[in-house]
Amino acid sequence: MMTHIGILIETTADGIKPALNGVITAARGPEHKLYGLVFDGKSAAYKDELQAFGIHKIVDIQSDEGLLNWNPDCWARAMVDALDYFEIDTLFGLTSFQTKDVFPRIAALLDAPLLLDCIGVDLRTLTAEKSQFSGKTIATFKLGGTHYLFGIRPNVIDPQPSPVTAEVLSFKTKISEESLTVEAVKEDAGDAIDLAEAPIIIAGGRAMQNAGNFRILYECAQVLGAAVGASRVAVDAGWVPHSMQVGQTGTTVSPNLYIACGISGSVQHFAGMKTAQVIVAINTDPQAAMMQNCDYGIVGDLFDVIPILTRRLKSALNDK
Amino acid sequence: MNVYVCIKHVPDTAAKITIIDNNRIDEKVTFIINPYDENAIEAASGLKRHITDAEIIAVTVGKASAEATLRSALAMGADRGILIRCERNPDSLVTARAIKAAIERDGKPDIIFAGNESIDSEGFQTPFRLGVAFNFPVASNVVSFKLEDRRVTVESKMNAGEMAVIRMPLPCIVGAGKALNQPRYPTLPDIMKARKKPIQTIDLDRLNLPTAAGSIQIDKLRPAVDQRHAKIIEGPPEAAVTELIRLLKEETRVI
Ligand SMILES: Cc1cc2nc3c(=O)[nH]c(=O)nc-3n(C[C@H](O)[C@H](O)[C@H](O)COP(=O)(O)OP(=O)(O)OC[C@H]3O[C@@H](n4cnc5c(N)ncnc54)[C@H](O)[C@@H]3O)c2cc1C
Questions:
Q1: Do A118 and A252 fall into the same domain?
Q2: Number of domains in chain B
Q3: Which residues of A touch B222 (CB under 8 A)?
Q4: Are residues A234 and A156 in the same domain?
Q5: Residue to substitute in A258, A261, A263 for testing ligand 1 pocket (most ligand atoms within 8 angstroms of CB)
Q6: Atom 37 in ligand 1: which residue has the minimum CA distance?
Q7: Nearest chain A Cα distance for residue B30, angstroms
Q8: How does DSSP assign B217-248, residue by residue?
Q9: B107-121: per-residue pLDDT in tens?
């Protein structure tokens, strides 16, 4: 039997979020018909990219009045409507700010199980894996019910193209009066690149000493196309905003490359980045936990090493 | 005004976790109040400074030992506590139903605070399920909060570089993010006073909860093995950096 699977296609001004391709890869299966659910009205523009990864139907979700502006309750109801109409019983998304705000609402409305931040999903057995207890354990969950929702941790699943021919559809939802209203969307300076979805992160800890010194990390990040993260000490000291905190009580990340600069490697920090593919540590103390549990370590003062790294990367990445 | 705060008793982040029977952890470790719930209590206590008739009621679902976490909440400003006793670790569908039933028996909520997530199971969903159960609006990952004329205005992170400004009428549910406030830690007199504050215990099985359509059950639990073979790159900084870039480009191909 064909299983209809919905995927929330999250987009930014630059198009489809790159980390979404891993999510589509995770949702595919021989008997699966994949529906990409799009809210920005640009389905047609995404057709080439989405069909290359195996999406069969691309659905523009709108109301009679046009695009649905961001309102998590309104999006959740629109998705429930679309699931019903297209007979979709399984929903996938990226574990992002928006998914964390919308998927639980859908799960609650449907009284359905939801697992966010999954590192693997097996739809045949209706099981999924995710880490728990500060990343110290990996749990396999068994889901029961009639609908199932999964948020995938960004970058954990290798995106693999699987071309099909997609059809673009439009779906009109009814809008109902919501008691929750979104009055405005404000710019939030300081974290223009999404930390959780960034393929490369360079992060600084207590050793950064002050806010101004983070500049050397931003310079290096710019060359790498990386986001800048921080330990809790740097956040608590007020050097950088909380949105940059990696760890147990910050953001969980799983980039291809994580460069920890002057971060000791506490359990709580590791909890947020231990599934990174490659960890680089730069630390004056060779005994620091981060140095013991990295892939590559450089024993040295970050104020010496980072500027050299930035300079060398500039030339190394330019003559690629 | 009835202010409820949902809290959870969770293993300390630094605790050594031992797995039993491949499906649960040995709970003989130190437990703490879920760190995000401290922000929720702080926000509730903040309300009490302006609204004199506000009563703060901390609610938790847990084993008898969760009373310790209720006491922490009482020391941080809650007036009384409700412990919904349950010997299992129920999923979020059951937890939300239990909290709803217990609150409903207790009083009429004006606002319910919860932590944005729990650090043990990282489910991110109980407040939303509670919202649907009560038919109250929910805002989560809240980093600023204001209550005026029975309307709540909050800011909630919606994307990298973007913050949504959300308004909701009371009654509503607010999921506290870490950046919402700085929880004040209780003083010794606060802790002493908390010992005398009332805690009511209800058995989850006595609440006659409606059955859920879905379920989320732990099937297996295994330790995360994350031992990496650290390769320390020797030499002066210039040489070490050159070698690092070579390894990243050629060995692991991540840049
Ligand atoms: C409930 C709870 C939740 C927490 N949540 C988080 C969380 O989400 N994220 C988080 O990060 N922490 C969290 N913590 C805090 C955590 O326990 C650590 O205190 C914190 O991670 C340490 O930050 P750090 O590594 O920057 O500082 P430190 O541990 O002080 O390490 C600084 C490191 O810098 C090195 N160093 C010093 N000078 C230099 C130099 N010039 N060049 C290179 N290296 C240098 C030192 O050798 C040392 O290893 C939490 C704690 C608790 C109790």
A1: no
A2: 1
A3: 137-138, 140
A4: no
A5: A263
A6: A207
A7: 13
A8: EEEEEEEPP-----EEE-S-HHHHHHHHHHII
A9: 999 999 999 999 999
